[in-house]
Structures are given as structure tokens and as C-alpha cells.
Amino acid sequence: xxxxxxxxxxxxxxxxxxxxxAELGEGPIWSTRDQAVYWVDIKGRMLHRYRLGGGKQSWQxxxxxxxxxxxxxxxxxxxxxxxxxxxxxLDPLVITARVTPEPDIDGNRLNDAxxxxxxxxxxxxxxxxxxxxxxxxxxxxxxxxxxxxxxGYFCTNGPTFSPDGKAAYHNxxxxxxxxxxxxxLVDGSLADKRIFAKFSPGEGYPDGMTTDAEGFLWVAHWxxxxxxxxxxxxxxxxxxxxxxSQVTSCTFAGDRLDRLFVTSARIGLSxxxxxAEPDAGGLFEVSPGVCGMPTNKFxx
Length: 300
Prior knowledge:
The protein has one helix at 271-276; strands at residues 14-18, 25-31, 36-41, 46-51, 56-60, 65-70, 77-81, 85-89, 94-99, 108-115, 121-127, 135-140, 146-153, 156-161, 167-172, 178-184, 190-198, 205-211, 217-222, 226-230, 236-241, 247-253, 259-264, 283-286. A hairpin with a 5-residue loop joins β10 (108-115) and β11 (121-127). It has a single domain, classed as 6 Propeller (Neuraminidase), CATH 2.120.10. It is mainly β.
């Protein structure tokens, strides 16, 4: 692929909707129930809620929070904290720990997750220092049992799925800067891992992502100033430039799922860089021109 910085970006409206100045904004999800986009600041230990009808609210967390997924029948959320997966309820805030996937691996933490069409949560782990490929991709089932499905990652990111539920996608952000595609089998296991797309030097690194109703992938560029839309064959269809370099993830929202919200980060940026991109760490809305997929909920 060509250098993202040299591509002619697709002309679209980009609006800063929340100047949150998040250290590491991530994991946006759309809640039809609450008519809101929820997203986290991992290192800032915050959970944010942006209501489309107006209103912003934040909750301070006791530790790093990597992701949340809505629950189905039980209500509330499932959240991935630093090392523990917990039940989470708001107003009042109640956190109930359920499982710790890697109690014996010092230095690892949870990072990025998404529920599939059957209500299973796929989540990753990574070494916080990003020095060794000791991260893994797991599947969490409705009974809170979990199983390792892939391993050998420096930085796990962006699980997402094809509209028919037959393919899973997952990113290695730091190592070979690749998006992998897997066959997602009926029993919930993965098969035939192959490279779907690979980022070139200068494009940044593939971070969080989501799938639209046409089966195209929308992928955030960490260090690459925007998001790309990839066709199901792995070729890029467009690039949308944002006013911040560390773009982290995205989700479709709204009654028609035709609004795209994008998170970003300011962690690691110098004072000079922050002067050049003062909106770093904000939540943005872009006009995608297509509709997304409904947000899946955890079945447990």
C-alpha cells in the first residue's frame, strides 16, 4: 500500500465532538439502549459516555480499563481492566471481578475486545512495555470460561468480524503491522490465519477497527493521521485524514448506524507535537457515507 501520508484523503466532514484529552482513548462501542457511544481512556483510567442527543459523562476507574462490551439479558457491561475481566454497572458504579486470564504472566495487560454475532467476547493481551511478543488472542464464552485462540503478539488490537460471521480479523499493531484474517468456525475456533493487509513504513500501524454493512473494514492508523476503509479482498478503498496522529479505533453509531465515531490518544507526544495537534486525545465524528453493523452484546 502507498504511504498514507501521501494519499489524497477522501474529502469528508471531521468534527471534534469531545475534547477529552485522553491519554489513550480506545474501544468505542455504540449502545442502542442508551443512545450513546461509550469509550475508554486506558491509561487515564476513565470510562466516557457521549449521548447523541447531548450530554457527556465520565467515570473514574480504579485501574487501567482496556474495553467494555454491553451485556444482553443481564444488562450492564463486561469490562476488561488491567488484568481482570469484570462485570460493570453504572449509576451507582459497581465492579465485580470474574476471571483473570493470565495471572502468571507478569507485565501483561488486557487490550481491545469485541463481541461476535454469537455473543462471545474476543479479547487480546499484550506486554505493557511492548518489548516481547507474549500477547495472545482469547475467546470468552457466556459462562465466563475462556480459551487462547492465537499467540505471539507484541500488541493485540481491533478484533472485528465479517457480516456473515464466518471470518474474524485481528491486528498486530507493533510487530509486523499486519491485519490478519481467520476463518471463524462453527465451534468458535479459528483456522487458516493469513495476512489480510499490511501497513508500510510511513502509514503508521493498524489499531482498532470495525466492519460496515458491506463487509469493508475501517481501520485506525496509530501514528498515521487517519482511518482507512479496506475492501473484503484486502485492498484499500479510501483514506480519511484526521487532525491527530495517534488514531486508535472507531465505531458506527446512530439509529441508522451511519455515523462514525473515532477515538485518539495523546500519550507519548512531546509538547511541540501537542501544540501541532491540540485535539489529540479527543473523540471525533466523521461522515462515512455507509452504514455499519449492529453492536453485538455479550451473551453471558
